[in-house]
Amino acid sequence: MPYILNTNLQTEEMLRELGLSSWEELFHHLPPQIKIKGNLNLPCGLSEHSLREVMEDIGSKNIPIDEFNSFLGAGIYDHYVPSALEHIVSRCEFYTSYTPYQPECSQGVLQALYEYQTYICLLTGMDVTNASLYDGASALGEAVLMSLRLQNNRNKVLVAYSVHPEYRRVLATYIGGGDFSLQIVPFTSQGFIDLEFLENNLDGNSSCFVLQSPNFFGLIEDLDKVSAILKDRGVLFILVTNPLSLAMLKEPYKLGVDIICGDGQVLGGNLNLGGPTFGFLATKSEYLRQLPGRIVGRTIDIVGNSCFCLTLQTREQHIKREKATSNICSNQSLNAISASIYLSLLGKDGLKKVWLYSFNLAHYLYQRLKDLECVSLPFGERFFNEFVWQIEGANRLLNRLAKKKILAGLSIGNYYPQLKNCILSACTEKKKASDIDELIENIKKLV
Amino acid sequence: MDKRLIFEKSDDSKDNKLVNPPDIPLNSPESIIPKELLREDLPLPSLGELDVVRHYTNLSKLNFSVDTNFYPLGSCTMKYNPKVNEDIAKLKTFTHLHPYQPESYIQGALKVIYELEKLLCVLTGMARFSFQPPAGASGEFTGMMIIRAYHKLRKEKRYKVIIPDSSHGTNPATASMCGYKTVVVPSTKEGLVDIDNLRKLVDEETSAMMLTNPNTLGLFEERILDISEIVHSRGALLYYDGANFNALLGITKPSLMGFDVIHLNLHKTFSTPHGSGGPGSAGVGVKEELKEFLPVPLVDIKNGRYYLNYKLKNSIGKVKSFYGNFNVLVKAYAYILRLGEEGLKRVSKHSVLNANYLREKLKDTYKLASPNRCMHELVLSCIWQKEKGVKAGDIAKRLIDFGIHPPTMYFPLIVKEALMIEPTETESKSTLDYFIQIMKQINDEVNFSPENFKNYPLTTPVRRVDETYAARFPDIRWKKAGV
Fold first, then answer.
1. The domain B84-338: what is its CATH number?
2. ipTM above 0.85?
3. Which helix (H) or strand (E) holds B338?
4. Which residues of B52-70 are buried (b: 16+ CB within 10 A; e: fewer)?
5. CATH topology of domain A65-81+348-446
6. Which of residues 159-198 of B touch A (CB under 8 A)?
7. What are A343-379's pLDDT values in tens digits?
8. Is B67's CB within 8 Å of A96's CB?
9. Is B177 helix (H, G, I), strand (E, B) or coil?
């Protein structure tokens, strides 16, 4: 029997020990009205060999991204994943263990997560972080709830329109349980946040402002200008960011950000159709006790050895129940550990190279598109690795390019009616100049 | 073992040459980005590949896991995670899919989601499922927001959620997140919902009751139909926390018990690994009349093509970006196909048998939390041992010395000195007998040398960890000396 070790003989013996003569008696105390009678008509089980064949066949109905010349990004990016990463993270001691409740037999996971927390703090410049959240969008939801707890007399949340549409949608659900209002702050014709609008719409009821940088259009915002506006009015600055962008961009802490969050898929994660990835959330030490989720701390054992354990658990649901800072229990530990391994393998110089190569390739694509008469570039070139371009009949063009195994980017007109015929395209270090040239040649041919 | 942190092993000269420079002239970031927006220093370590591999491999060896140790952590269903599912989920045709790829190129992935939904509908009797929530607590949040939206649409003002005192902590925390006030219903001395009390608590201001069945004492709520009748008679809905569904596959269905909204933890019942605390996945199922409230998108089929359906009239929106933890769904789907109907029924039978076997063999040594027969897990109360000065936590720590991961401790909260033990169906009688022998041996030690228990465990990489110290002096990240 797959995955059941007890033989019929042993099973009978165990039933006998319980004074039972049949399986039915084991469930005798369930009300008869609710018991399933007869069969459910689910399929029969498969041998391991057949299962593999069935699943490989289903898989063959997908076309993996490597078979395309792809420029898709918009929150999930196809960076190179080092071989050693998959090997390490596939160690059974990591992937078949539970949340490290028992520190004496979980030091491996605990230290790996402590190092993860350090990595996030080093990248963001922040003081404190937790041991991961579900993904970037839900991390934003938690960041905003955290802000609303910190300022419980204020219930208005302002969000930049240039924050990822999926994130804004998740945020709306997260704050849907309370009496909170959400106001959208538009972007300028250059794609940057409209500072004037922001300034005019802040009031004594405003709890926080959410900005993304690089924003959904890839543009790098002037965070210091935003924080200058917010500081005067006691409004918390929440930033959504791409953690890889921080290999070169200034630590958001130094630019006045209060809470930073985002998605860690870029740090060695597979695409996985968008999940699992992991979310991170970092902040200043003064807000430590309002952090949601697990936190790993360094401590000592009874003989004074340095060691690690889950800490500050009095914020959490299993202790505080209805008064907890969040309901989160399982997070995305394995993905967080995976990101630490990625950062360790790449190292300081490797990560900078990934940044620099992605940046240069994206800008090369930008320049090549700029040379095409049929293309216009609505926003400027202050972007990291993705940007928006515009072309008549964008959706049709994308479809035709896809048939030639080129995924040129994401059509964003559905999310932003004013950006009709706009395409968001990204480059990672995996691209080659020839991939970009191929895209350009095909656009020329098709238009 | 070298106990330094990875940051303390750094050597500035390492470059593992993992990526190619592009074949174009490189510009520096300063050419485009104002200097004040660029960082001066990236204080990350540099290590050789072997250094990194060895660091993490050695860390992994400090851990207990299902593959290395018996792990009877109650309510967590630490069953074996079949290797074939891992291999399947690692196929490029599943991992290398971008969420914005056109639907025509992800037909296989959409089929997995669609078919998994159909199978879970059969197993639970629910009408539809969403797999967007990435964990159980997120599933609860999704389910309770659906209930909130349902009442709101009917213009009913209901602000209370009833939760048993034995519930998982996530239940009341979720109710708060959804803007509800938690009302606690006490348990009887047998550990079941106190029906008379429940009848008094449920009223027209009650939105829902959240219930786990089997409950956290491992007991089946035998009066579930009375509970359902009481809750529904006042217009409230019944929410099923499916954390313990492993006991009921093919035995009963949440729909037969009267539940309106449910979540199932795929990383428990459906064998996907826990990954040191995630990624998980929760399927949220609803009855027919609540379908339109589910998160978007759902996967539907038209003319033989699967597509992402965003057109749900009353959708609560989204709780996670894209389509949930897709890669986890692949494993859960493969698991169900592998076991089939008979195999799934066998899961529940053996999980209940294994737990009752432990209960029978340990009942004279440790006090049972309830006189009733248990389902897939049992709760012991170490109060007899406490009288001799040894607490449940001390016993848990001693188990580690025998290579056994401790059960869930001090939970449920209504049982003093609780140890909550869930062996799962994948453990053999031989392992259970070893556990029984060790539990009895530990009780002997309690009788003869209770004073030793404060020192346990003795054989672990570190000794008893001071968690109070950690909370009093939070050190949650490394800092370079002198910074």
1. 3.40.640.10
2. yes
3. helix B326-362
4. bbebbeebbebbbbbbbbb
5. Aspartate Aminotransferase, domain 1 (3.90.1150)
6. 168-170, 172-180, 182
7. 999 999 999 999 999 999 999 999 999 999 999 999 9
8. yes
9. helix
